[in-house]
Amino acid sequence: MAHLHLTGKTLIPVDGLRDKYTIMKKIGIASAANVYKAMYLPENLPPEYVSVKVIPFLFARECTKFDQEIQMSVFSSTPNAENIVEIMKTFYSNNKFSCASMAYMSEGSLRFIMSKWFTSGLPEDCIAIALRETLKGLSFLHGRRRVHGKIDAGQIFVNGNSNGVAIKLGFEGSMYEHYQERWNPLAMASTSTLPLRDITNWGSAPEVIFGAEKGNKYVHKPHSDIWLVGITALELAYGCFPVRDRAEFEAVIEKIIKKKKLPTMEKLKKIADMENVKGKRKMVLNFLEKKFKSLAAKGERKERQFSPEFEKVVVKCLSGKPEKRPTVDQLLQFEFFRRSKDLKFFQRAVVNGKRVIDKTDH
């Protein structure tokens, strides 16, 4: 990760235009790059907020990878890609930096939002909206024979303003980790559980894991993305995924598939605890006990129930056989998404809702 101190400074592209970017604050990281909120000041147009990803030239290998990611995602600026975080412009600045300006997503990622305001998961109606918008972006990618390979709650971003709310999927060059999310205990590695920030690695589809174990580099395919949609649905439902290793993870998935039903968080804990057949002492993280006591103190339900329509989506996405998973367009026809509410509901419940929570806490 690059340690850049650019806040308050101005980046001027070397393309001869008079556009410039005034850096306001750091909002994210991505490998050797930092991501900033910036004020874009075009020569003949009104100013607007953007995100700018910046990587120093001295990270030569990372710069090359960055350029490749940009090439992979350059089509995201086309009109039909409204559910993909847009790469607006790439440029070099100050003879020091390789940069990309992106659409500014004011509320950050869903993982960041949950880590601060919805620690026990999003309301199910909001999960339906968030996944529906994500699937629209994924449909755009799959329709162009592109796969994502890194879908999780940390790469689904929300923008809210006076014009409404937008939910978009980060892809290749527009992917990054929200800066404050990195220090969230749920996202970090611990002695108790696997880190959420790496969930697309340890929570990958069976065919991906099997290929890695055999020493083969598996090429992600659309059905592997669908698996990750199912895993993302679980993260949005619970707010976390309390497993210590792949064996516990597989035990949870197996139970869901067998029962065709999502466990409550208490039962999910027990499933992971019971995965000790090899003589290992496995316990799910201690903070969950404190979390449940905290939820009870606030009058919230520990035993959260899910609708059959939502459970069907998760079960279908997590089929162990890739060919049995629905395509993204088939998934959008499931009742869970066909009856989902509009973005205004998400804005009221989540974007405006977290502001109400902030006022209540203060």
UniProtKB/TrEMBL annotation:
<keyword id="KW-0808">Transferase</keyword>
<dbReference type="Pfam" id="PF00069">
    <property type="entry name" value="Pkinase"/>
</dbReference>
<comment type="similarity">
    <text>Belongs to the protein kinase superfamily. STE Ser/Thr protein kinase family. STE20 subfamily.</text>
</comment>
<dbReference type="InterPro" id="IPR000719">
    <property type="entry name" value="Prot_kinase_dom"/>
</dbReference>
<keyword id="KW-0418">Kinase</keyword>
<dbReference type="GO" id="GO:0016301">
    <property type="term" value="F:kinase activity"/>
</dbReference>
<dbReference type="InterPro" id="IPR011009">
    <property type="entry name" value="Kinase-like_dom_sf"/>
</dbReference>
<protein>
    <submittedName>
        <fullName>Serine/threonine-protein kinase BLUS1</fullName>
    </submittedName>
</protein>
<dbReference type="InterPro" id="IPR047173">
    <property type="entry name" value="STRAD_A/B-like"/>
</dbReference>
<feature type="domain" description="Protein kinase">
    <location>
        <begin position="21"/>
        <end position="337"/>
    </location>
</feature>
